[in-house]
Design goal:
Layout (H helix, E strand, L loop, with lengths): L1 H18 L13 E4 L4 H5 L7 H8 L4 E2 L6 E9 L6 E10 L5 E6 L18 E3 L19 H10 L2
Antiparallel strand pairs: 1-3, 2-3, 3-4, 4-5, 5-6
Length: 160
């Protein structure tokens, strides 16, 4: 008679303890999750009106989104979630091209570099950047066309 009571009591205690919460004395490690293109201020400062799509790809990297219905627009997105917090950081940047595949304008929440470092940061997060106000004499250097790079040199040394 005592064994069924004891077994029932032990079963109820085990069932209730399985449903209870245990205080977390040691928290597990959570990694930072980063997706998309990381665009820096220096990268945006190199953009000039009239750059080709290849030059923009060289400066900013391959865009995350090229819409097949809007081929003259490239979208760059960045998403970062810190593991130790629930805060999520997002950034958006778009480059627009004309019919000749030349850069017209850019929009986004990365501001262009100003002529002086003492300028205040823009108040709005997303804004259109007028590339025509930037000096046109600055040249964005592309790698030489005849430079084969590391793998090209290796392939030449092997004889392929």
């Amino acid at each position: 008679m005592i064994f069924p009571r004891f077994a029932t009591t032990a079963l109820v205690v085990c069932t209730l303890s399985a449903c209870s919460t245990v205080p977390h004395i040691i928290n597990e490690y959570r990694i930072d999750v980063q997706q998309g293109n990381v665009l820096t201020q220096e990268m945006v400062a190199q953009l000039r009106p009239g750059l080709s799509k290849d030059q923009v790809r060289f400066i900013l990297g391959t865009p995350v989104l090229i819409d097949m219905f809007h081929t003259n627009r490239w979208d760059y997105f960045y998403w970062l979630k810190k593991g130790n917090t629930t805060k999520v950081e997002t950034r958006r940047f778009s480059a627009f091209f004309d019919n000749d595949d030349k850069l017209l304008r850019v929009t986004g929440d990365v501001a262009p570099a100003g002529p002086t470092d003492g300028e205040a940061a823009p108040q709005t997060r997303i804004r259109e950047i007028d590339l025509s106000s930037l000096p046109a004499d600055a040249d964005v250097s592309m790698p030489p066309a005849d430079d084969k790079g590391f793998f090209g040199n290796i392939m030449d040394s092997v004889g392929l």
